[in-house]
Each structure stands twice: as C-alpha cells, then as structure tokens.
Amino acid sequence: MPEIKTFAQSGAQAFHTTRWTMVMRARGDAPEARVALGDLCEAYWTPVYRFLRREGRDEDESEELAQEFFSRLLSGQAIDKADPGKGRFRSYILGALKHFLSDRRRAEGRQKRGGDAIIESIESRDGETSPEMQLPDAGATPTDAWFDRHWALAVMERGLITVEKSFGETAKKRQFEVLKPWLVGDVQGLSQADAAAELQMSPGAIKVAIHRLRQKFGDAIRREIAETVDTEEEIAEELRYLIEALQAD
Amino acid sequence: MTPSEPSHCPKCHSEIPGDSPGGLCPKCVLEGAAATPSATSTGHKAGSPPSVQEIAPHFPDLEVLERIGTGGMGAVYKARQPQLDRMVALKILSHDLAADPSFTERFNREAKVLARLSHPNIVGIHDYGTAGPYCYLLMELVDGVNLRQAMQAGRFSPAESLAMVEEICSALKFAHEEGILHRDIKPENVLIDSKGRVKIADFGIAKMVGEDDRPDVTLTLRGSVLGSPHYMAPEQIETPGDIDQRADIYSLGVVFYEMLTGELPLGRFAPPSQKAAMDARIDDIVLRTLEKERQARFQSAEEVMTQVGAVAERPRPPAAPAPDRDAGGTAGSLSSATLTGVSLAILIATAILTSGSIFSYKVTKVIGGIGLSLSAIVAIVGFILGCVALTGIRRSGGRTSGLGLAVFGTVGWLILMIPMVGSQFLMMPMPGSGGGISFGPWVLIVFLILPAFLAAFVLVRTLRRWAGGVPREDGGRDFPGMGRGLALVVLLALAGPILLLTIPRFLPEPEVGMSHAERQVEAVKRESERMMAAWEMNAVVESSGMNWHRGGPEVILPLKIHDSFRAEFRLALYDGKGNPKRYSQVGPWEPAQRRTRIRVEDFETCRLHIGTIIDSEEVHCGIAALVGSTGQSGFMVADTDFAEWNFNVPENQRLDVPLATAGTYEATIARLEEEVDGKTELNGVLRLEVRLLER
C-alpha cells in the first residue's frame, strides 16, 4: 500500500491501515479495533438516524433505535454475523442496519409495513457497489440510494467541519465563512473582489486562500473516506460513487 | 447554517437541498474535492525523485521536512535551517552527475550568477552546491501557490492580470538587465505568496540543467518533462542556441493570455477581448508579446511594463467582444491616444486663457504666463511622444487606429502653439516702440491663427501618409510631398510678419513730432493710466461696505514704470459723480529711491498725514493720505489741504508706500464714504495719479 503514504502527512500513521481494515482484521475482537469501530460509528451516526426517521419513526424512537443498533454493532454481534471482509463500511452499515431492523421486527412479532420484503443477506452482496435492492414499499422504506445519498452528505459535512476547525476561531473563521462558497468551484456569480475587500486581502492572496481551502477540503474528504477503504484508487472510486449517489436524489 | 429558503447552486443551478451541510451544493462541493489533486501526491512521471529519507543524510545542517513538488528540473523539499530558524526550499536538481561530468562546472557557474539576482519578485537563492550525489539550490520558501493553482481557484480579472504581469515584468526587467534569461516562464514557475505577491521561481534553471545541449526539446523525453512547449517562443524551439530576452517576453505573453482567457493561444487564436470583456488596449499588448517574429514583439520587459502600467492606471470600460481585428501595430494607438487626450485638454485650457488675456492685461500677466509655459511644455512633450507613436505606427505598417491623432499631437499641436505664443508677445507693452501694439482680433486671425491652421493641416496630412505607410505612386522617397509641404509652411509662417512690417497701417500710428524720449514718456503715461483704471475699479469694488475706522481696505497697486523716469504722484479725491474734488501732490518720486514700508506710528516723524476729511459742506469720512518716504527723512505732503483734515489714525495700521525703482509698487488707499441718513454709502474714490516729470 505505498500510495497510502500520501496520507501520512496528517501525522497519523494509523491511516496506513484504515480503521475499517483494522476492524475487519480483528473481526471485532481486539480492543483497539473496538475503539476504531466506535469512532466510525460516531462519525456515521447521522445517516443511520435519518434512515430510521425516514421509515416513519419519531425522533425519540429513531434515536433510541440508532443507539441500540450501534451498541449491538460495537458489542460485536453484527460483525460476527456479517462478513465485513468483503464490503465497504458504508455497505456494511446499511446491511447491518437492515439485519438489525428485520431481527427486531421478527422479535417483536409484528410486521410493520415493508416487513414482508425480501431482505438480502449481507453475505450475498457484492462488495464493490451497493446492489439495487427493491423494496415493495419504497415510500416508507428508504432505498439504498437514499441511504447512500445521506452517507455522502455526512462525509461532506465531516469534511467541512474538519476544514472549519482548522481555521480556528476569530478572524480566520471569518475567512472560512467568506470563502466557503468557492468550494463548489469557480463560479461566475461570485465576486472574488468583494471577498478580497471584505477580508482585506489582495486579489492574489484571495486566490491563494481559495486554492488552499479547496486543497484542505479535498484532503479532508479523502482522509474521511480513507478511514473506510484501503487504496488511493478505492478512495477515488468511493468519492465518485458518493457524487453519483448525490445525483440520484 | 441551513438556509431557510431553497436556494440554487451558483454553479450547476440545481436546487440546494435543505439538509445540505453548509448550505452548499453537495454535488458540486464533492466534485470540487474530487477535482483537487491530493496536496502531497506528486508527479510520478519524472522518475522517482529521492525521498526525504534519502536526501536528509546529505544535508546535516538542514531539517528536511517534506517534498513539496517535483518537476522536470528536479524535486523541491521544504526544509528548516535550525541555525537561522527559517524555512527554506531545497531544490535537488534531477541530473545524473555521472553521465555529464561538465555539469558540475556549469552548475556552479550558473548558480553563482543566479544567486546574485536579488529582487522582490524573484525567488531568492540563499545557497547552492553539491552534496553527495546531488546538486542543490537552497532557496527562499514561498508560502503560497503557483499561478496554475491560482488560476484553478478562479479566473483572473483583467485588472488582476495586469497587476500580475506588471510584477512579472519587473522581475524580468531586472534579470534581463543582469543578463539572465528565465527560459521557462510558465504558470508553474510564477508563485504567489500568501500576501498576494508575485515571485518568479526557477530563473535560468533551464539553462543550468542543459537545455542548450538538446537542440530539439520537444522531441526528447527530457523536453517533454521540462515543460510544455506551449510557453516557448517559436525561436526557442527552432533555434534554442540563439534566444534572447524576447523569448521570455513571448512566454510571458502566453501566460498573460491564459490568465485573461483561461486558454492557451494556439493556432489562429482570438484576441483576449473576444473571450472576455476587457479594455481593448490589452489586446494590443497581448498580441504584441505573442508575435511569432521576435522583431515585431516588445523588445524589452520594460516596454511591456510601461504599456501594461498605462492601461492599468487609466482603465477604460471594457469593449464588448469585438469582431476579429487585424493584429497589427499597437504602440501607436496607445501612446497617441494618451498624448492626444492630454494635449487637447491643455489646448482648450490655453485657448481660454489666451483669449481672456486679450481683454485683461492683468490676467495676461498672472495666468497667461503660466498657461504659456505650460502649453509650451505640453507642445514639446507632445512632439516627442508623437514621434515615438508615429515610429510605432509606421513599423506596424500603419495598421493602427489613432494615427491622425498621433500626427496631430506631433506637429499640429506644435504649430497651433505659434499664434498663441505670438499673440501673447504682441499684447505685451514694448517700451521701445511707444507702447503695446494693439491688434484687432481679425489681425490675429488673418495673420497668425489662419496660417498656423493651414500649416498644421498640410503637415498633418503629409506626415499621416508617411506614418501610415501608404504606398506612393512615384515610390522612392520616404516623405512624400514633404518638400512642398515644408515650403508652404515656411511661406505661411513668414507671411504674417512680412505683411505686418510692410503695410504700415497695421502698425500703430507713430505720434508725429515727438522725440523718442517723448514717446517713451507717453508710453509710461498710458501705461499708468491703464493701470489706474484697473486699480480704481478694484478700489471701488474692494472697499465697498468696509469700515475704514477698523483698519481700512488695502489695495495693492502694481505699477510698472521704467526706472529712467522721474514721476510725480498725486492723490486726487473724486466725488460720486467722478469729478475731482481735491488733489494732493505726493511726489516727486526719485527712481533711485527704494521701496519703503512705513508704519502708521512713523507718520509723525515722516510728517505724513492720514485721517478723516471733514469737509465744510458735507462730511466725508474715511479718507486717507499716503505717501512716500526716502527712508529716514521722508517727504512732505505737498498739498496743505491735508492739514485741515482731522487725523484719526487707527492703531498699528500699516501703510505701505511704493518706492521701488522697478517692479510692483504698493500703495494704500482709502475710500470716500458719505453718511446719508445714518447709513454709510460709498460715494467716491481716491485715485493715485502718476505723472511723469522728466526723463
């Protein structure tokens, strides 16, 4: 994995092995793998919570359920059941979540709407991309695409937060706020001159700052994704997939 | 941070979902992130640059931190000099030392020269040398991005591009003057630090790593690594051994074009103003830097800088992308436009001043003088600038707008100056010829302005043809019709004076029976009368409504009298109807006497009088007397009438008495006021008469 070396810049040698790889290798047994999984779960709590909400639960119930799901995940039950060696963390979470929900339904002995859906087992899934899973009542049960889209949003949000934190407080933070719109690219309607005036920077300095902001953001996103996949190619692929997932909305 | 209303992405125009983090379009943001190359991933194409671990042992005085870039010339590392506690950039040249034993020598020779380049816009070289298998340069670390990255962050506005190019030019000018060519100007080598300053990197490195050894850079593997040939001047590719500073100017042109348009000037490229709205003059500059023939290019970075500076300083509203224009000559339109604008403005100003001066002598003296010298300077400057512009236009084959204006600036304006200057001199009093010659306006028009206009017309026409490079039917001479034109001009210029001298009725009537001395006396007399008229007017105007007892008005009277005369001053008191009421002799005045300033306290000793008149019939309050002194002794007020006056001298009032032999004389005068029904009215003026006594 020599390509991953580029991320060594962040100073965390741990990224040589992604957290997800570590979790998978240890199959949930090693304590550090537990910690790593805990970090990951914390990071992607939002898409899971939204998924549960989308199924028609209220806030409290969704929160409670998400809590239960993750605690089960962390206790290793789900890991043991699923074979995480083949899937992406994103796919794994979705699969595990569906498992968890159907288990729960079965246990409670009441079939909610969509309960009669054929739920594919996680073992049979292709690890590369999320398979299209048709649920009979798509209105109530979110699709995989829906989940992936929210996953992408979570990645983006985490990237933004990382970059924003790197700007620190006070004056620098203002710079982030003003320059943030340029993260989408070079846009006609946005005036760099206005931004330069507001931040009291020269037009050249603005360009430098925008470039750095994008660089930082790009790196943050890649680092975020790098926690769940191994090689640089996979990072690029996952990023492309997430962009597609956003379009699918 | 979530926007309350659905907004649209400024880039893809789709609606931004309400749950999008930061209110940004998620798709565009992630696409942006995907488009950003990883900061640390470096080009692996250039072989494998040594790793930090590999080079660190060879630089014990440095803490090599990380590799920050790789290029055809080598790899750059960020390092710290612990001794100086500063960050530096360490450039390891990618050169196989074993393969080329002469390299070390050349490297040392070149590096020594480069290390001398100290300029705010050039990345400075701190040190150089060899360490182990490496040749290295220790350079200033520029905390910023290169122009390529900056362009990716957003298109440069024309104004920003101009500013950048100006700075690049400044660096190139400096280096070229030191005899150093960059040879590889491209966006990657133009750095912008975090304060927005431009720094040019890799000066002369191309030569150092041996560009000269490879005649065809584009075909060798090294050449392709070295840099894109798109930025190279044609001659740099064709005859790499024979290039000069103009090759750098071409490369600069490519960078300039790319900054403005976001594209490379390939093939038959469109002028920048067709790609984006900008000042059309920028086209001229860009196209001239991109001339394939280096003779047609700007010859020095300084020239580019001047032109760019001119456009940046006086921005014009951008022209809409125009239809294809002939990329012809350029310098002419620019400089002629500038000079003509200035010339016209001053021409109008001078015309106003000059015509004003015909009616008022005072104005002539005070403002006319300034206008004259100013316009003379402008005429000369215009002439020089015009010559430069015309040369440029001619070199371009006349394919330039603004030719007529340039020619006008060169000759027309100069010729039009003649009647202006002429009229000024003719309006001035000439002591030797019995006073100023008074011309009617028509004389001026017929004998000065008209010939000048004709001459200007002929010259402008001739010169226009010459500068325009219009092919002549009879071929041969460079100045078609120049001889005829010049003859006509000389003829017209002479016509005025000749007519004036030969036809006596245009000259003022000589006073019959007067000696030369008498005429001089008359001249002075007239002069003084004229001045008094002006003074009197001023006195009336300026004294109205002022209270004498509180200090009184003071009028400065300029008197210009030839110092070979004796003059007598007389004070006269006039009533409201203009009839003289009282005179007071205050002379004679000796020319040898110098100007004296007498203060009121001194009056007693000087036996001068000042006070208020109380007439027997009516009360005239506020009359002053004045007058001169020879210094200590002073002189007497001749008119005893003054003795009747009731003196009422305000304290510390100053009385300036004019006694200079030449130059400006000062006199303090007072008003004549009358009290009618308790109201003070201005009822008369005090007049100072100057009478000539003898020569």
Structural write-up:
The complex is a heterodimer of chains A (249) and B (695). Chain A is mostly helical and 249 residues long. Chain A has helices at residues 19-26, 31-43, 45-54, 59-75, 77-81, 89-108, 144-167, 170-179, 192-199, 203-226, 232-247. Chain A has two domains: 2-138, no CATH class; 151-247, no CATH class. The longest helix of chain A is centred in the middle third of the chain and has 24 residues, at 144-167. Chain B has 695 residues and is of the alpha+beta class. Chain B has four domains: 37-141, Phosphorylase Kinase, domain 1; 144-320, Transferase(Phosphotransferase), domain 1; 331-506, no CATH class; 519-694, no CATH class. In chain B, 41% of the residues lie in helices and 14% in strands. Chain B contains 20 helices and 15 strands. Chain B is elongated. Chains A and B meet through helix 7, helix 10 and helix 11 of A and helix 1, helix 4 and helix 5 of B.
